[in-house]
Protein: Exostosin glycosyltransferase 1b
Amino acid sequence: MQAKKRFFILLFVGACILLLLLIGGGPAHRSRTHRSGRHPGRSWQRFSDPLQPFASPEQPETDNHDMRRRRDADPGRYKGKECRMESCFDFSRCESNGFKVYLYPRQKADKISESYQNILAAIEGSRFYTPDPTKACLFVLGLDTLDRDQLSPQYVPSLKAKVQSQPFWDDGRNHLIFNLYSGTWPDYTEDLSFDVGQAMVAKASISTESFRPNFDVSIPLFSKEHPRSGGERGFLKYNSIPPFRKYTLVFKGKRYLTGIGSDTRNALHHVHNAEDIVLLTTCRHGRDWQRHEDGRCARDNAEYDRFDYREMLHNSTFCLVPRGRRLGSFRFLEALQAACIPVVLSNGWELPFSEVIDWSSGAIIGDERLLLQIPSIVRSVHRDKILSLRQQTQFLWEAYFSSVEKIVLTTLEVGRPSLCETTGRFSTQTVDTTCVSQSLSHCGCLTSLWICKLEPPPPPRGTASELFFQHGEQ
Structure:
């Protein structure tokens, strides 16, 4: 009997203690949880940036602080981000006279680069030009907007006030702005240092994030020596069989010891073998490069001087086109002209005229994060594919890129179908660019027809040939 009493007493005491723990521990636990959750992840935020390039594109954005900070610091890039033809373009200007382009008069006091003069001359000499602003569908500034790097001698100061004072500006509606360089050291953002408003932008090195489809136009980065009109033909005289050249993959350029764009170029020595893959970089650039030079600089500089760039360019199957400080590079057009298949390493770059050119037929699009796989990738390309890619480089160069005039006219042609599609007057059909282009004017807009002239391959030997009849012809 006494044993039973002791057992029940102990059981009762244990239950009371457990109840007290449950009642008293809850608030303490909640308090600890609350205190620890007030600044979640404070010590881990600093490590998020290096992991961002490897994040899945489908992964949702969970922290908007960095995005807001970039937008606040870069208003010219994000203002009008949602603009499309139907929302930021006045079609009534185009109804009476079709697609006509007006150039604002140039002032003597305004500094204009040779490249921008070539752009304006190409427009003025085209069938789109009109000297009458009342007949214009599109307006192009007489102010030089090509170089918006504040450290550049070509930079035009106080452009914001000058742009907004243009008589037909109207917050940029029906305006097209050309730009080759934006941002400056150290971030090289896509800010033009003035508000583009609702204007269309034809820009080199534009990112996919900033690119507004069917509104903006991605153009190639070209040098001031690029010819105004005409231009040299591609350097491919004949296709050799087999199509392999002396080198498999080449590159020669600046290394960028620090800052944006340096990651990939600093790693090229891991792939370079000085035999069929020759990737040369030099540390000798910038005013204070010696302050940042590392143990490889002396060796890299010496090897850099041993090779002639032109000889490499014309004797390589593939040419590496890594990003520079900005996403675009002069190497892109140089490779196309030389019939050296571009291997593009510039993550996030909206390739030139991407809405009308299928770049998978004219280049190898790589990934900066997978640099070490590039040698095996280019070596695995079949010889028939190499022949096709090489021939396509010549077609693209001569059709779109060999002169400033062709780049400008292609820019206008790319923007014009966007205008026509929105007005509903005609629709375009995308077809393989290895075909021959013909154009028909209809309803004041351009319809591009791609007509294949390729003959079917001959039948294998020893097999019966079929007869094909078309339109009454055998």
Summary: The two ends are 117 Å apart (CA to CA). The first helix runs from residue 2 to 37. The domain at 247-401 is CATH 3.40.50.2000 (Rossmann fold).
